[in-house]
Amino acid sequence: NVPDPLITEVQDWAMSFGDGVDASPYGLPIQYESDVVRRNVEWLTADTTSSINFTPIHALDGTITPQGCAFERHHSGAIELRKEDYRLMINGLVDTPLVFSYADLERFPRENHVYFCECAANTGMEWAGAQLNGAQFTHGMIHNMEYTGVSLRTLLTEAGLEAAGDLSDKWVYVEGADASSNGRSIPMDKALDDVLVAFKANGEALRKEHGYPVRLVVPGWEGNMWVKWIRRIEVTANAVESREETSKYTDTLEDGTSRKWTWVMDAKSVITSPSPQAPITHGSGPLVITGLAWSGHGAITRVDVSKDGGKTWETARLAKPGEKMALTRFYLDTEWNGEDMLIQSRAMDETGYVQPTKHQLREVRGENSIYHNNCIQTWHIMPNGEAENVEVS
Amino acid sequence: DRNIAGFPENPPVMTAIAAPVVSSGLIGAANASTGAGEGKFGLGRVALPEEIAAWDVDVSPDGTGLPVGSGSVEDGEMLFSEGCAVCHGEFAEGVGNWPKLAGGEGTLANDDPVKTVGSYWPHLSTAWDYVNRSMPYGNAQTLSDDDVYAIVAYILYSNFLVEDDFVLSNENFLEVELPNADGFIIDDRAETEYTIWRTEPCMENCKDSVEITMRATVLDVTPQEEAAAAQAAVAQTAAVTEPVAEAPAAEAAAVVAAAEADALDPMLVAAGEKVFGKCKACHQVGDGAKSRTGPHLNGIIGADIGAVDGFKYSKVLAEMGGTWTHETLAAFLADPRGFAKGTKMSFAGLKSEDDIAAVTAYLASFQ
């Protein structure tokens, strides 16, 4: 037993000064955490201006995603739009078409909510088999933030919905200000329920890459509908069936027919550590298995974890009770005997929905759906503590 | 629900009394707004008809929003070749990872379905709407209505859905039916999946045996971590040495950069980097730059025109001769198709002389 010089010898940091205040007026993570960054899979897309990168979920804990490493998805690059130049129009079947400035939006009553935003294509590369080796790449098209904004209901009420008549079959078409003109149709029921026109995330202004100064938040529904740089909301009699709701974000089944309007993100979970990018480095003994669970149908009520590829399961501990359409952190505080493990997690939500296996999903949908892959993920933990992405029988 | 501050039960909304409406002050007419009604705050201003016309251009499957106009397959072929083929291919077959717009009929039930306008898209309105609002990529919203009709007509032709003498217009638009119009069903997960999966899950003896059937490592397509790790190491080393050498090193770097770049104005170069954002979708510059949709641009100033090794130029640039100077590059960037009629570069040109000077300076910094 050799005394630890980090303890027995006086270290530099215990003698001299560290940085003063203002060394970095807006701080970045300490240099030792520089590997906790978004990453891109270059071969996925033709160009980074219409592409996606991935949240380093393997290296995060808790549930709130810092904005600086929350995944980005652009269809025509992240534009720079000043608050002064921002306009939001509401038109179509409304009593009075209106234009709001950013300052106008700040004068409506505000709400705060924590919600996850998951790209419909999250885990989409895994349909035909295990492909990407890391939770960041298989499950990192997700983030979870506390949003501040005005309810869409408030803005629609301001424009007046008498002109729309019976609201039960009406829609709103929402459109962004960037060159992609990303637009989606949202049924009026949802628009009047919990959709938020948000301008702050985690307490501060939205980042450019997340739609500064204003984006739409559509709780529990696929990320493509969360239109960034939102500039127009049109009340319509029908769905516009734009490019992003017909040629993309539709799910092709085995027989070649495709599901459209698959908006809700079903219950899903993944073990973030240990995982391929977060191996076990401490040998056998006490081990914390942890991960994230979420459901677009409501709150997560239970997460089970298997260490033997799904033969037996034990119920994990939720860090706190699940919240509607928000990430839930789970922990399984366990012992590792140093042998191979096939670890899986299985989420359940308040509607009783149980996260399916990949076999179950393929049975209904085949392998060409691309979107909405919420299957149970398996990591193979090897005796040396390293992990790999596998599929099991 | 984590409702930290929900919508107040009785917000201080205005009553039915007309109230002065806040206006941005930019447009006088906008002051003639409605008064606030029941449950309203009286915020915002009335959207003017011209403003609605400028932004409300989406087109629906029933033809709502479609402007009067027409375009032929013949005109569309020329427009497509000039503005679209660089990414989508001369026959709309797609280049590299860029979308294929034609072909793929009968493949939707295959292992790798080819989803194109012809094989997959249900509505022609979607094609018209997307071309009109979002194309060409990097130069969106520059096409006239007739051009959009012509390009959509050519896409139909590429999919063998119309003859070569076809003219698409707002009059015959709804007569065109796409092959996969009936290929979609509305989300049926509630019936086909939820009823099956809302059951009490198995906890013990759920399977007899478990075997690994596939490993991601076999494919080996995961981005490698070495680069990130190396960067982290560099950052740490740099941080250790920086406090001592920071100021002189920064000065030295500035001097070297200035000398190398032939006394380029750093402000101009920085401005040019921003302008280059318009070019980046197709052109790379700097360390490791490769030719992709367009040629790489390292050392472009002083290089022979149409001479980057391995890049397949349009005939006009391949045969033009001469070199790229600040002047020739400026002329090309101001009006690409005027300078080189028939160029594949689908870029309308830079309107601002300042932008041209800036981006030229930026490119000159990569000699």
Summary, kept brief:
Chain A is mainly beta and 393 residues long.
Q: H/E order of the elements of chain B?
A: EHEHHHHEEHEHHHHHHH
Structural class by sheet pairing and helices of chain B: mainly alpha
Number of helices of chain A: 6
Specify Rg of chain A, calculated over alpha carbons: 23 Å
| CATH homology superfamily name of the largest domain in chain A | Oxidoreductase, molybdopterin-binding domain
Question: Which sheet architecture does the biggest sheet of chain A show?
Answer: 5 strands, mixed
Can you give keywords for this protein?
heterodimer; A: mainly beta; Sulfite Oxidase, Chain A, domain 2; Immunoglobulin-like; 2 domains; five-stranded antiparallel beta sheet; 6 helices; 24 strands; 32% strand; B: mainly alpha; Cytochrome Bc1 Complex, Chain D, domain 2; 3 domains; two-stranded antiparallel sheet; 13 helices
Which helices and strands occur, and which strands form pairs?
The complex is a heterodimer of chains A (393) and B (367).
Chain A: H1 5-8, E1 39-40, E2 51-54, E3 73-74, E4 87-92, E5 98-101, H2 102-105, E6 111-118, H3 135-139, E7 142-151, H4 152-159, E8 171-176, E9 183-187, H5 188-193, E10 196-201, E11 204-205, E12 215-217, E13 230-236, E14 251-252, E15 258-260, E16 268-273, E17 285-294, E18 300-306, E19 314-315, E20 317-318, E21 328-336, E22 341-349, H6 358-365, E23 378-381, E24 387-392
Parallel strand pairs in A: 4-13
Antiparallel strand pairs in A: 1-2, 2-3, 4-5, 6-7, 7-10, 8-9, 8-13, 10-11, 10-12, 14-15, 16-17, 17-21, 18-19, 18-22, 20-21, 22-23, 23-24
Chain B: E1 45-46, H1 49-55, E2 70-72, H2 73-83, H3 85-88, H4 124-134, H5 145-158, E3 167-169, E4 184-186, H6 189-197, E5 212-215, H7 216-219, H8 226-260, H9 266-275, H10 315-318, H11 326-334, H12 336-339, H13 353-364
Antiparallel strand pairs in B: 2-3
